[in-house]
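Hi P.,

Sorry for the delay on this. The queue was packed all week, but I finally got your sequence through. Input first:
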Amino acid sequence: MSVNAQEMMRILDSIARDRGVERELLIRDLELAMVSAARKFYNSLDTEEFACTLDPITGQMTLTRHGEPVEMDPQSFGRIAAQTFKQVMIQKFREDERNTIYEEFSQRVGEIVTGVAQRYEGGALVVQIDRAEGFMPRSEQIPGEQFMPGDRIRCLLLDVREQGNQVKIVLSRGHEDLIRRLFELEVPEVAERIIELKAMAREAGFRTKVAVSSIDSKVDAVGACVGVRGSRIRNIVDELNGEKIDIVRWNESSQVLIQNALKPAEVAEISLCFELGRATVVVPDDQLSLAIGKRGQNVRLAARLTGWDIDILTPAEYSKGLEILVDTLKQVEGVSEEVMDHIAALGMMTDPGAVTVLQGIADHIDDGRVRRRAEETVKKVQEKVKKDQAIAQLQQDFEELKKSNQELKSRLEELAAKSQP
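Then the structure:
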């Protein structure tokens, strides 16, 4: 039977081309839709009663019942059967399109894609990518970054998952892997695996630290990533709308790596406590604010990059912490000079560090009397820490109040001077 065969095949080709669905799948969907319509017309519950074949070249459709051709024209099946045909066909077409989109984008997870911003829905940005829509949750956006409808946007294809009858394509501009992919695009040595990105710590929109190393001694990892006059790194920074990127030279030595990670601050001394994963870093007074960074950002990123809990101290704070540690340990019986030297060498110079060490010592003492003495010492140190912290806070509040009073005094003097005739 022929139902505008040539026109139907042209429409089928057009749908296959526009939706990116294989032509064979659409032909199979049409056959299933015709079987459903025939079953509806004959009120049949037997799934094997009807069969349909469509010639992919001529468009000739053949409907059989129990293996015998049905001579009835499908156009005479009636409105209800026609509606069934339409619903089944649309449903199957959408399923095929959804499966095709899922398969296509699942293979691209982790890649950078370019799309067009469409709109915001509940804080999430909807982006048109090829023939599919992706969404970027607020948690994956760069803080403060806004896009207008029609803006082109490059982002990381983070995840693809099936949710109900839809395919959810999750995008990101705040993920660390976006930085990795941008380096692969801008720095050929990274794409060729000559330079390896060993570690990364990012606060999206503000700052990123990347530790790099080279497997070729002739290639300078930091220089290659920065580029001639900063051309390569500038392209990445521009793509991220000004986010600062620090290129750190990787080193297997934790001390050297921590020193590199804290740059541009200069480090005077580093002590490591491998048992607690803590690094005590001593910096000159004029380098303290630089080492800590704005709102603690520099030391926080350095800690995440290196995997160490980093304490920043000035030489005076270091000496004071060492004094307190030694004085406290002397009160615990059974702690020799060697043990004190070892603990000091581990870098446990801060008051909280001394408490931690003492607590560990108390937990491993078998003698009940000595253990109680150690626990009492721990409590005393904890009380002293709280007292010192309270005093420091009071001193800070007093300095701020004194500064405010000075500013108020100056303002009153200015007003008095202006009011004089």
